[in-house]
From TrEMBL:
It comes from the Eukaryota. PANTHER family: EPM2A-INTERACTING PROTEIN 1, GENERAL TRANSCRIPTION FACTOR II-I REPEAT DOMAIN-CONTAINING PROTEIN 2A-LIKE PROTEIN. The lineage of its organism: Eukaryota, Metazoa, Spiralia, Lophotrochozoa, Mollusca. It comes from Elysia crispata (lettuce slug). InterPro entries: SPIN-DOC_Znf-C2H2. Residues 20-72 form the SPIN-DOC-like zinc-finger domain. This is SPIN-DOC-like zinc-finger domain-containing protein. Pfam families: zf-C2H2_12 (PF18658).
Amino acid sequence: MEFRKKRKVDSERRAFNKDWMPKYFFTEIDNKGVCLLCNQSVAVLKEYNISRHYATKHGNYGNNLSEAERQTRATELDRKLARQQKVLEKSTLAQKSSTHASFMVSYHIAKHSKPFSDGEFIKKCMLDVADQVCPEKSQKFEEVSLSRRTLARRIETIGEHLTSQLKGLVP
């Protein structure tokens, strides 16, 4: 008895056709088709799926535009989406760095067996130093969360991570 392997759509390596951008107002982001008008993505990168989305959601959008106007409008929308993504990437990077700093302080507090309430004291000290040394970046120091509960969660996460690493080493 022979079992056939199920076909997986995402493994078909479909390519985005550049003609779809002005035609259906779609672009490709991370191997997914994303509508420039409503920012929804289609499940599979196929022309039928893209055209169906365009016809059902935005059927009469762009009917009165010429080819050149459609191309210009699609390019404008694509640039706008790229700018939005850049803003989100910058804020995500700032959040990651403040979280990383919080983990570093938590690690040192746990390593030296200090009480969790010292995190709030350390934060006040960091803010005072930041105000004197680099006042333009003091807001970034404000974003680092060092409350007792946060430190407890961070230290617990560090402990779980170390435990999983040790379990991986021991057979």
